[in-house]
Amino acid sequence: MTDTDALISIRKVKKAFGSFQAIEEVSMDIGRGEFFSLLGPSGCGKTTLLRMLAGFENTTEGEIFIDGHAMSDVPPHHRPVNMVFQSYAIFPHLNVRDNIAYGLRKRNLSRAERYEMVDEMLDLIKLPGYGTRRANELSGGQRQRIALARALILRPKVLLLDEPLGALDKQLREQMQLELRALQRQVGITFVFVTHDQEEALTLSDRIAVMSGGRVLQVDTPERLYERPVSRAVAAFIGNMNFFRGTVRRNGSASGLVETEGLGNIPLPLDRLTRPDGAPVQVALRPEKFTLSRTRPEGALAVAGRLSNAAYLGERSHYYVSIDGCATPVAVSSPNLGVGRGLAPPTPEDGPLWLSWSPDAVVLLDAD
Amino acid sequence: MADTTLAGKADSEADPPRRSGRLAGFLHRSETARGYLLISPTLAIMTVGIIMPFLILLVLSFWTRQGFGFDTTPTFNNYIRVWTEPIFGALLQRSFWISGIATVATVLLCYPMAYFVAFHVHRNKMLWIILMTLPFWTSYLLRIFAWKVILGYEGVINSGFMAMGWIQAPLEFLLYSQTAVIITLAHAWAAFAILPLYVSLEKIDKSLLEAATDLGDGPVARFLRVTLPLSMPGVIAACFLIFIPTTGDYVTPALLGGPDGAMIGNFIQLQFGAVNNWPMGATLSIVLMLWIAAIALVFLFLTRRAQARIT
To answer: What CATH number does domain A242-366 carry, 3.40.50.720, 3.55.30.10, 2.40.50.100, 1.10.940.10?
Structure first.
């Protein structure tokens, strides 16, 4: 991402509430038309950052640029951004149409023009004919859509969404995720989306910033965040991960490997080692990257272990396999392909099980 | 989990639930009956203490005075007198004028106070509210006399202004005038305005205000389009709570009003006292009640209209 593409540039922004440092120092760029998520546990500063973009909080230090303009001195009602609030903040004294048309007041439009725009928005959010409904007659999902329409009708440069799906039940949330993504593609507006739900962030986003304790840990595409996390915190926050202690061994400039506690020696191409000989590392492997078998697989990296626990989850099962040299059992996730296909579900009585994996799936992280 | 449900089932088979009595059963089934039971003490007091006297008043208003007793033949004579003789209309008009001004002044003065506590005080809100009601812990009569001291011919304001050299002679319009009555009423009823205003402002979800700002409203537009309409129930409640009792007030005008400040309440009191024309007093009370009801309805209608207009 080059600077000219960036619609939002956050430059060395810090935020303190009294003695509490909510944002340590954050710099990042958000591109035009991107669906960008701020992901992190509660209290990580993601909502504070969003509210600074909206202008509801000042930056203590640093500067935010939107479309090239510094935002420090721009009050929230003059910023080219609009927000969908976590509580939706639908005006209870107005009907649906007046809620959606609320921000159009300053645009010098006739009543007919305003109503036409509202009707277009109602079609877009799939609630045609709802204009005269009162706010208290709406369900959670409908309120959410109206909050969205009320912001989108103003054609902001950036739409900020503060956990907008958090209050919905699971099914509705999944449906709204798909609709939100489709809507974003349709209108082409940059979305900045705050969530603590990693699955939601992975489903929706072009790029995700993983935050923790007021810092940005990694900004990347969902796939790279999952496959190539840069730190243990990111690896542990997104999905499940097995960690093994290891040491880098370089054999001159020809080849290299990682000695691990539990998984034995894993040969890796030199360009992936990126660390000097003897450096301590952590080796991380996702549960679904392991293959289980009852006999030692030919030509693959493998270790033997014993099944200590199993959980059946329908489409897949989780197994916990104890191996020598590793205090905690290794988590393995394996699809249930059905009777006669793949491995029949193992039981603890089966005797030794073999775990195999590909070196490509291995992630090297700094030792902690 | 399964164990406990099984155990529960076994218990209930051994010992079937006790059946309640017929009255209790009836009350259990009917929510309306339970509701009436709950309000029955209040209902009894209302009937004995308000509806009965009101009916007596109503009957009395159709009688006429005869010497020291009543002529009990029903007649509209009193109502016709109230309608035709200008003194009654003038007094009613003055009463509504004085208490109307007092109401508007009270609500306008109390709204910022309630707003401040609701939006800008973050700790010890209740303490602030209690402090605001502190003056009302002393007797009404004492407060009226306090205003007498402040507004009097040689009172705090006049002597203060004279000492400053701002005025040569004491301001005479301060005491024993409509101004005095309005000032005192506005002060006396402030607590009744602050509390409903505070409650309605406090209830407003702060994210609605942020949403309005986010959608392009500056502070003034936001106040007019969100805060004020959403606090309207409090404003209406405050207006009613002040306007209705102050129109009939007779203590304040009697003590501070002077000749120009007498209100309908003083006149009604006279009818039941010195003039000894109870039927006329009853008629005036009924007429006052009808007028207040009419004004309240018009007021409600206008605020509804205004609210629809603003939004």
So the answer is: 2.40.50.100
